């Protein structure tokens, strides 16, 4: 007695391979798109985190400051026990604590303005407000404003 063996025809195998090839192509394309979105999302988060870190550190330094003096390349923030220098380059912002360390914020500064009592501060003038325009990416600029509220005793020194 002969028993019949069940098998697929050549046409059925060809159709199955074609469908599986399409499914694999769609999956790899979706994976590539999601990976690209994730990479761009990570880059945006990294840049915005740098902007927030710089703003937080500057606000803290301004709050603790006794005097903030404008210099040619940036600011000198004089606190009770230390002096912090901010140097604004076209590619980065440097925060130097004398004899301790230097923090580097890799954010380009497009525009910077220093003010004291509503008027633009010149070199070696006291500063109570700073306006920065930071470049996050090619087409996104973030304005940042940081204020210092002096006490009357600090202004008479």
TrEMBL record:
Keyword Membrane: yes
Superkingdom of the organism of origin: Bacteria
TM annotation in the entry: 13-34
Keywords, in A-Z order: Membrane, Transmembrane, Transmembrane helix
Protein name: Tfp pilus assembly protein PilE
Organism: Pedobacter cryoconitis
